[in-house]
């Protein structure tokens, strides 16, 4: 099937490099990557959740954002 996609330039460049390295077509590389991604999604890989539990204390302090590394380092240095 022929279709048109708009892909990120860097992503296409990496796919082309892989096609050249492996001696395959760009189409083959993209098909394999898409198959692998869809298989993982169907199998539920990467969707497992877990609960972060502190060793002691009352848990996460108010105002602490675990996604903000700079703020965490600042709080730990003040600590």
TrEMBL record:
Superkingdom of origin: Bacteria
Region (Disordered): 43-66
Classification via Pfam families: VapB_antitoxin
Signal sequence extent: none
Protein name: Type II toxin-antitoxin system VapB family antitoxin
Lineage: Bacteria, Bacillati, Actinomycetota, Actinomycetes, Micrococcales
């Amino acid at each position: 099937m022929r279709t048109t996609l708009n892909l990120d330039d860097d992503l296409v460049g990496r796919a082309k490099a892989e096609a050249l390295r492996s001696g395959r077509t760009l189409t083959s590389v993209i098909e394999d990557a898409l198959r692998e991604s869809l298989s993982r999604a169907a199998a539920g890989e990467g969707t497992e959740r877990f609960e972060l539990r502190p060793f002691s204390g009352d848990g996460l302090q108010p105002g602490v954002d675990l996604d903000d590394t700079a703020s965490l380092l600042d709080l730990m240095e003040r600590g």
